[in-house]
Amino acid sequence: MDNKENKLDEKKIFKNNKIEEKKENLIDAITVQNQKIENLKLKLLQNQKKINDIELRKLANIENIKKNTEEKIEKIKKTEIERFLKSIIPVIDSLEDILNLSTTVDIKDQPIIKGIELTLESLLNILNKLGVKIEGQKNKVFNPDIHELVSRELSKETLPNHVISVNKKGFTFNKIVLRKASVIVAEN
After folding, report:
1. Domain limits, the chain
2. 86 — alpha (psi -120 to 50), left (phi > 0) or beta?
3. 78-133, pLDDT tens digit by residue?
4. DSSP per-residue letters across 137-180
5. Which residues form a coiled coil?
6. Which is nearest to 39 in space by CA: 50, 27, 49, 47?
7. Could you tell me which residues are beta bridge partners of residue 132?
8. Which phi and psi angles does 143 have, rounded to 5°?
9. How many Å is the maximal CA-CA distance in the chain?
10. Tens digits of per-residue pLDDT, 37-70?
């Protein structure tokens, strides 16, 4: 019976060894699978980070495009406004020339001249409301940024380097010189 018992014990041991071996193989397989899962999780996190970075870059790019577009639109607006304002200056000159001529030929009190005066006044008021400034007032210090020197003359009434008279008004808009005022300046 010992022999039978030994064989049974051997079978049990063999069976237990097989079970242990299967357990170990199963544990190894689970460990490998867990490692694969961890690697996949890590890759997923990395990919999510890449996607987030790409999304942030896209948003930043969209904001930059929006900002650049707004700046370009503003620049175009300013350029077109400046161009428009420069085109009005000759009209102002013409109206002023008519008014100056009307005093010379003594038709200053004619209704049409009054209409021209009102038109010029309205136009200058509108430009003033838009931010256009008239440059070239008498007795102001000569400024080469806004004045164009026509000539210098001796003057007892005006301080040296100050405007004696204005041949043509100058105009500025938002610190942009649309036209320099043509002026005569007092000498020292």
Report:
1. 133-188
2. alpha
3. 899 999 999 999 999 999 999 988 888 878 778 899 999 999 999 999 999 999 99
4. -TTSBP-TTTEEEEEEE--SSS-TTBEEEEEE-EEEETTEEEEP
5. none
6. 47
7. 173
8. -130, 110
9. 154
10. 999 999 999 999 999 999 999 999 999 999 999 9
